[in-house]
Amino acid sequence: MTRFLFDTEERLDWQTDASCAQIGGDAWFPEPGDPGTAARIICSSCPVQQECLDYALQERIEHGLWGGRSPNERKQLQRARKDVRAS
């Protein structure tokens, strides 16, 4: 059990460097139809944007903007990755 908790904490170390962690707020969970432009701008210059996106893809997170991508955009990336692996 202790090893599992350590692994989880280690996997999430990148979050301390995330721009959104310094700002907070609901911008990363926009209402339907809202593209989340303000959050995407912040994500675009975040030093851990790729780690954030990779985490959301790996964990199959279905809500909010992660790595500057919406749930639908992440689903498209997942499909594209599967297609590349299948080739």
Structure characterization notes:
The structure is a single chain. By secondary structure, this protein is mainly α. The chain is globular and about 40 Å long. The chain has helices at 2-11, 19-23, 37-44, 49-59, 71-86. The protein has one domain. 57% of the residues lie in helices and 0% in strands. It has five helices and no strands. The protein starts with a helix and ends with a helix.
Q: What's the average pLDDT?
A: 86
Radius of gyration: 14 Å
Strand content: under 5%
For the record, the count of structural domains works out to 1
Q: Let me know the largest β-sheet.
A: none
Helical content stands at 55-70%
Contiguous runs where pLDDT drops below 50 for at least 5 residues: 1-6
What gross morphology would you assign? globular
H-E order:
HHHHH
Q: Could you give the distance between the termini?
A: 38 Å
| Count of distinct strands | 0
The DSSP helix count reads: 5
Write the layout of secondary structure elements.
Layout: H1 2-11, H2 19-23, H3 37-44, H4 49-59, H5 71-86
List keywords for this structure.
0% strand, 87 residues, mainly alpha, disordered N terminus
